[in-house]
Every structure is written in C-alpha cells, then in structure tokens.
C-alpha cells in the first residue's frame, strides 16, 4: 500500500487534483488565499477529498471547452476531478462565495 501522503486528493473548492503532500507544501493554487492549507495537514484533510470521480487535464483554461463545461475558466492549468464527494466546512463555503 502506498504511503498516504502520496495519494491524490481533490480540492473541495475547485476540484484541483494533486498529492496530499503537495497540498500541504503549496496549498491549492486556486483557493489557498481562502482555504489556507499550507503547512496544515488537518486543513488539507478538511478541504480536500480522496473520494472523487474522473480526471481531466486543463491545459489552456481560457480556450478549453472542458473549462466552460466545468466552469473553471479562471483556474490554473493542471489536473481536475470531474466530480468530488463531500463539501467544504460551512464557514469556508461562505468565504468562497463571498468572493473576497
Ligand atoms: Zn482549490
């Protein structure tokens, strides 16, 4: 069984997918300002999930039909889940909606 830290997880805010340890090291490239996962393993667990379906590679967000379909035009290129299970904690959902 692979080490837990090597498992891919999907951000519950934007569905960005990377390894758990990368969320801990760098946070989410889209949501870090709100979710503040960097150097906080508990927060990574709360704000990401290993329970997701499908993976799509987003290369050029502004041109991709996938981006329009997934409404992820403004997100960084990378790997995204098609569907995630679970929700952000309530307070963080409100911060995400608030826009900032
Ligand atoms: Zn995110």
Can you tell me about this structure?
It is found in: Chromosome, Centromere; Nucleus. GO terms for molecular function: RNA polymerase II complex binding; zinc ion binding. The chain has a single domain (4-96), classed as Herpes Virus-1, CATH 3.30.40. The mean pLDDT is 86. It starts with 7 loop residues before the first strand and ends with a helix. The strands form two sheets. It has a three-stranded antiparallel sheet with strand order 2-1-3. A two-stranded antiparallel ribbon has the order 4-5. A hairpin with a 5-residue loop joins strand 1 and strand 2. The radius of gyration is 13 Å and the shape is globular. The chain contains five helices and five strands; from the N terminus they run ββαααββαβα. The relative contact order is 0.22. The chain is of the alpha+beta class. Zinc ion (ZN) binds at residues 11, 13-14, 16, 28, 30-31.
Mean pLDDT: 86
Question: What is the strand content?
Answer: 15-25%
Assign an overall shape: globular
Biggest pleated sheet? 3 strands, antiparallel
What is the number of strand segments? Answer: 5
Distance between the termini: 41 Å
What are the SSEs and their pairings?
Layout: E1 8-11, E2 17-19, H1 20-26, H2 32-35, H3 41-47, E3 48-49, E4 52-58, H4 65-70, E5 78-84, H5 90-98
Antiparallel strand pairs: 1-2, 1-3, 4-5
Bound molecules: zinc ion.
Question: Which terms summarize this structure?
Answer:
single chain; 100 residues; alpha+beta; Herpes Virus-1; three-stranded antiparallel beta sheet; two-stranded antiparallel ribbon; 5 helices; 33% helix; 23% strand; globular; binds zinc ion
């Amino acid at each position: 069984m692979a080490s837990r830290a090597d498992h891919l997880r999907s951000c519950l805010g934007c569905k960005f997918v990377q390894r758990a340890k990368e969320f801990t090291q760098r946070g989410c490239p889209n949501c870090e300002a709100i979710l503040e996962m960097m150097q906080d393993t508990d927060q990574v667990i709360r704000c990401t999930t290993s329970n997701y379906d499908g993976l799509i590679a987003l290369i050029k967000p502004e041109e991709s039909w996938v981006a329009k379909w997934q409404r992820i035009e403004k997100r960084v290129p990378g790997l995204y889940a098609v569907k995630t299970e679970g929700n952000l904690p309530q307070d963080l959902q409100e911060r995400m909606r608030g826009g900032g």
